[in-house]
Amino acid sequence: MIGKLEGEWIILKDDEISLYEHGGYGRPEGETLKLAPEEALYLIGRNKIKVENYTFTSLLSLFCKNSAFLRKFLVYRDIRERGFVIQAGPHDFRVFKRGQKPGKGTSYYLIRVLSERDIVNFERIIQEAKSAHNMRKIFLLAVADDEEEITYYEIKINTPPDGGKPEINEKIKGTVYANTVLIKAEPDSVFESSLYGKRFDKEHRALSSVESLYLIKRGIIELESKNACEEFYRCALDSDHELKEKLAVYTDLRNLHNIPKTGYKFGHHFRVYSGGKMHSEVLVHALREGETMPMSVISRSVRLAHSVRKKMLFACVNKDSIQYIEFARMKL
What we know:
The protein is of the alpha+beta class. It is built from ten helices and 22 strands. Among the domains are: 2-154, Trna Endonuclease, Chain: A, domain 1, CATH 3.40.1350; 166-241, MutS, DNA mismatch repair protein, domain I. The chain has helices spanning 18-23, 37-45, 56-63, 69-81, 122-134, 190-193, 209-217, 226-239, 243-255, 295-307; strands at 2-6, 9-13, 27-29, 32-35, 50-51, 86-88, 93-96, 107-115, 119-121, 138-144, 150-157, 172-177, 180-184, 198-199, 204-207, 221-222, 259-262, 270-273, 282-287, 292-294, 311-317, 322-330. The strands form four sheets. A ten-stranded mixed sheet has the order 6-7-8-10-11-22-21-19-18-17, sandwiched between helices. It is elongated, with a radius of gyration of 27 Å. InterPro entries: tRNA_endonuc-like_dom_sf, tRNA_intron_Endo_cat-like_sf, tRNA_intron_Endonuc_cat-like, tRNA_intron_Endonuc_N, tRNA_intron_Endonuc_N_sf, tRNA_splic. It holds the Pfam family tRNA_int_endo.
């Protein structure tokens, strides 16, 4: 089978339509079969076709003028060799269930290809995850590392469920010490059972700035004056440039009746408890609107979360809402 290069496509005559009918390669167009660059290179490498005036290496060199091409080809080859039919777009690729192909099945995965050094734009990823969900597809990131290994991540819009822990309404006096507020609370108080703060001494609990500000806003904690509240917020903001996003996410999690506690030991903002469970099940990292993050950092976060049996959620804070997005490693 001999094809011709036309632009970015490899064109085969219509008598080669069997590649499409039996293997799901290319797309019929009139009396020809059009192969995407990844498809053509894969078939050349398997000695299924040839391209006039090109070898595998010369065609690879041509296509690699697009810096993203090589990793896309590596993903295409990996998916094919796992027994799936894969075609270009939407996103970068669509993948069919094993045993299914174009015309005789529907695509199951939508895949975006990245490298380990790429910067992830969360707003874009959220939109692509929503688009995949609306099309009833599973959205994956396929990340190629510097040694040409591929790691797959399932991306889901995943708001934490109601944690079942009712909020407290008991009012209490608070005293500010730097970025901490002390409240007088007995060991069996509702503040302890709701995991607010940490025991400071026999009579007091020490609350973090985020916990304190949340309870001040709800009218649960009363400081000596309105000025004291404003001054406490200013001092807390000066010492924590992520405070606004953290407070927004903390508030949302508490409104969902979950219990967020610091996630510092895991490298993130919060570990989250729900339903009276003894161990946290979720790590949450708050992000301001438009924030980006290297894929390598996300990879480390997901690996750590999985190693301690937790989900990894990133909470993207917008003006009117908070969008939670889950990254989870998966095997195809």
